[in-house]
Amino acid sequence: MADAALRLRSLVEQLLGVPLPVRVRAWDGSQAGPPGAPTLVVRNRRAVRRLLWKPGELGLARAWVAGDLDIEGDLYTTLDLMASLVWERGEDARTLGQALRDPEVRAAARGLVKLAGLPLPPAPPPEEVRRSGHLHTRHTDRRAISHHYDVGNAFYEIVLGPSMVYSCAYWPDPAATLEQAQRDKLELVCAKLGLKPGQRLLDVGCGWGSMAIHAAREHGVTVVGVTLSREQAAYARKRVADEGLTDRVEIRVQDYRDVADGPYDAISSIGMAEHVGADRYLEYARDLYALLKPGGRLLNHQIARRPQRDETTYRVDEFIDAYVFPDGELAPVGGTVTQLERAGFEIRDVEAIREHYALTLRRWVERLEADWPAAVRLAGAGRARVWRLYMAASALAFEGNRIGVNQVLAVRANDDGGSGMPLRARTWGTPAP
Asked: Of 46, 146, 171, 299, which is least surrounded by CB within 10 A?
């Protein structure tokens, strides 16, 4: 067969009812599609079988992670071109049964089955999460965190660079270094929390210890950092020791729900609340409120999705849930603010920094691609492909305003109702050099 690309392209266009915006190269070396367009490389028939058995995003993700599909050309351009066919038509994949009532669609589906060969369902790649148990128990949260973070600290060093900060940086301008932008983010959080020497800070989801170390070293506070990842904790403890801060920074492998040594003067939660889950969010907010002193501040840094017309039918991103952040849930920023207020907090400031995350993700992708052989050696080809796809697609989602990220500053008021905030609090603006 020397025309697989043309047949594949024609059948897919017939099935979707729209032209494919990319070129296709098939396993037999044939090509079809617009000259000069990015090329979708279909390495084998198994890729087609994956799409037949799991139409839409998850089938494409499985083929990508397994190496059955690849892209030649600019990754961002290709994902942008494909977005309207995959992510923006997500519901279409689940209504394939209705579409198959159309004789032309049925004929296209039969043609794809014939092209794919023996139509047995390929096993998912080993990087896909096998889920069991209830969501957001201590056990399932620990397992989900381990899936994402316990993939080797050396791999994350490639992606994140020396700062080892795995959340949105705060850019003075696009030409700044990633390290400078991440330092500015940490300093911004410290400024919003009003940290002073001698205070106690709880860093929830402390990662590799960057926030804890920065706050202790630059602001003289005592810090407890908690994470569910043992690999992160071991790495963070070594960094703390290397900085000579073991008397001021304690890193624990501990669930935030089990922290019982409050009160704290301040709490930072940076890129952690996405793991909490909608059903547990009020509990999360109440637990943090209880751990703060009156007058204490919480800085909650969290990715947000846009509200849906019908929130009862909100669809979790299949690729992200299966390969990246199992059980992760995004909420609209308004819902997050409401839950924090229900827990007793007063909201003092909300800052949207969506564009900053797009810049951060593009830098992470650059670092991953620049050291690709080492990344594959450390984490495996499938895992490296997961990270490259999710970071590039996420950058486009932030740029396209499909998701956002916000820093919410909240206060546990004093007994007399005072906030302890200055009259003109928003003086943090540009972090100090």
From this structure: 146
Distances (CA, A) of 16 to 23, 110, 172, 226, 242: 16, 14, 43, 47, 57
pLDDT value of position 39: 96
Q: Which pLDDT band, with edges at 50, 70 and 90, does 132 fall under? A: low
User: DSSP states of 200-213 as a string?
Assistant: EEEEES-TTSHHHH
Banded pLDDT at 433 (limits 50, 70, 90)? very low
Tell whether 178 is covered by a domain: yes
Could you please report the per-residue DSSP string of 337-362? HHHHHHTTPEEEEEEE-HHHHHHHHH
Please give the C-alpha separations between residue 191 and each of 139, 159, 204, in angstroms, as whole numbers.
35, 27, 17
Q: Which of 370, 359, 366, 367 is nearest to 394 (CA)?
A: 359
Dihedral, 127, 251, 203, 301 alpha carbons, nearest 10: -20
Q: Are residues 167 and 110 in the same domain?
A: no
Residue 34 neighbours by CB distance under 10 Å:
12
Res 329: pLDDT: 86
Pairing of strands 69-72, 39-42: antiparallel
Count other Cβ atoms within 10 Å, centred on residue 14. Answer: 16
- 258 in the same domain as 223: yes
- DSSP letter at 321? I
Check whether residue 91 and residue 218 sit in a common domain.
Answer: no
Query: Does 180 lie in the same domain as 62?
Result: no
- 238 is written with which tokens? 């070594």
SS3 of residue 65 by DSSP: helix
> What DSSP string runs through 232-270?
HHHHHHHHHHHTT-TTTEEEEE--GGG--S--EEEEEEE
- For the entire predicted model, the pTM comes to 0.90
Type of residue at 260: A
Average confidence (pLDDT) over 23-34: 94
**Cα–Cα distance, 83 to 400 (Å, whole number):** 11
Render pLDDT for 328-365 as a digit per residue (tens, 0 to 9): 789 999 999 999 999 999 999 999 999 999 999 999 99
What single DSSP character describes residue 126? T
> 142 with 112, same domain?
no
For residue 75, name the pLDDT band (cuts at 50, 70, 90). very high
The sheet with strand 69-72 has its strands ordered as 31-32, 23-25, 39-42, 69-72
State which residues form the domain around 75.
4-116
How is residue 61 written in tokens?
Answer: 């993700």
Number of domains in the chain: 2
Task: Kindly state whether residues 110 and 157 are assigned to the same domain.
Answer: no
